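Q: Here's a chain of 302 amino acids. Please give me its 3D structure as tokens.
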Amino acid sequence: MKVNRLVEIIIILLKKEKITAKQLSERFNVSTRTIYRDIEDLSSAGIPVYMNKGKGGGILLLEEYTLDKNIFDDEEKESILIALKTLNSTKDFKMEKTLEKIEGVFNQKNFIDWIDVDLSPWGSSGKIDDRFNIVKDAILNESMLTFEYVNSQNQLTYRKVKPFKIIFKSQSFYLSAYCLEKHSPRIFKISRMRDVERICDKFKRDEIKNLFLKEENNAEFDIVTLKLRFNSNMLFRLMDYYEENEITREDTGKYLVTVQFPYGQWIYSHILSYGQDVEVLEPDFVKDEIKYILMNTLKKYI
């Protein structure tokens, strides 16, 4: 549409000092004559755009045509751009367009692009990004979702939910949603969701908001305090997962970790992931369960 093209031309000119009619015609797949008419329309509408003819010429905006610099200082502008880059970590096309527009409007010629946020796993095929964007669109459009879900007990179930919020916690994305099968708020790990589909059924987000506030206020977890000893070669993993004040270096060179976690079966999987480089010191019931798991595993190989 012509209006969209005119708006985008303004954004491009805000971002670049100069561009040729030929470059614009190739971008929008129209003739240079159409671009010239667009420039005339913009000028008639009061946009301070002009053309320099001849070698080295092009289409330009008056340098002063930008946002009032007093609205945001340079540091605030950079903070906004960095926040948008972080939000665009899932490579949302609409967010990329927004980021391009904001960069142009802010006219940050000296902005250093010093951060690149990519939350997808190494070697990812992009399926996580697809699921994330489907979930996000469902939340924003107040549409229900259906999907298959694998829980921590390795059970595959079908779910129909009213999506409420995406949560990024401990290196993973989660969906907070009202589950129609369980008739209560639930948390789903997005990487365990399969065949995610946004369906036509609608809901009002405000109608379920209080359910989540109530759930948060009434949340109760069994907290367990773990005391673990790690071999020195595990320091890089400890720094990835634990806080600095939870790690103590012993005289032997090994590391003692004291940490509190909400209790669940996931604790055992986490401890076992360190293999022979970890020893459970406390509590005894966790130590006993680790022994039981290891003994049953060993039976498969002897």
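Q: Can you summarize the key feature?
A: The mean pLDDT is 80.
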